[in-house]
């Protein structure tokens, strides 16, 4: 094991409003036990955003009393879509609206400014990697897992032998765009939901805040026309209020979230027959909900995850731990793995 005082890696979780940073020493111990956030300013374009990541790094190093000379590498995660090497899609993305982001090499730009290796993952993969390592601990390298992260969209990640599966174009683990069976999930007369990616009937079209706003809530308001949310405009505002109603046992809200849980369960069922992982993790807004509600939701996901008896004996369906810190910590773990591998070659 490396001397924990010899060197460190830094994890940077880039978001639409904030950057979260953490520090991981050479022995695998985190030196930060909370969120360390600074503004990301991504809407002001790449040059400003890269500068803000440098600020986030220096800020967390100052907080932990670590000299920059001890930093061996940096792990970076961002929202997608982006390539496996951190090049933002040529069509941009929700958080990267400025045309300067189109096709921008985010990882390469940060690496150039830092003069240090930068290891890239998308935010879903980073959170999945952290969930995997927390759950399996020292045996993480011997196991596989699948994570679904529910937010504005549906992100996620596939972990095999403790490493992120990225795929040839970096699109592996895009669980939100896997088509799932709709029969028995939708009510009679309920339209097949459409995803922003152009697909219909994929997991994200149901299990995401966008799915609630575009498809689920408008339908269920036709079944509950006197509901309070029918008077809330725009529909996006009503969608964001729905979780609070679910926590209070509101019938309309529970119908919506049960459909989301069923969609995730069906997604995990596909994963069970494709990768047969040892754990299925659920993250996102539901993890930050009231305990009774998230346990109800997780129970519904388990109910609709159809595993064989042999699989049920060895697999777990659980929540992502430390959801707010999972991205930065997963990014740091990826950097540590990369540097450790180089060191032992």
TrEMBL record:
Q: Which residues form a coiled coil?
A: none
| Domain of life, source organism | Bacteria
Write down the InterPro entries for this protein, in alphabetical order: ATPase_NBD (IPR043129), ROK (IPR000600), ROK_cs (IPR049874)
- Spell out the Pfam families in the cross-references: ROK
Entry-linked Gene3D superfamilies: 3.30.420.40
Q: Write out the transmembrane intervals.
A: none
Family under the similarity heading: Belongs to the ROK (NagC/XylR) family.
Query: Which PANTHER family does the record associate with it?
Result: BIFUNCTIONAL UDP-N-ACETYLGLUCOSAMINE 2-EPIMERASE_N-ACETYLMANNOSAMINE KINASE, ROK (REPRESSOR, ORF, KINASE) FAMILY
The name on file for this protein is Glucokinase
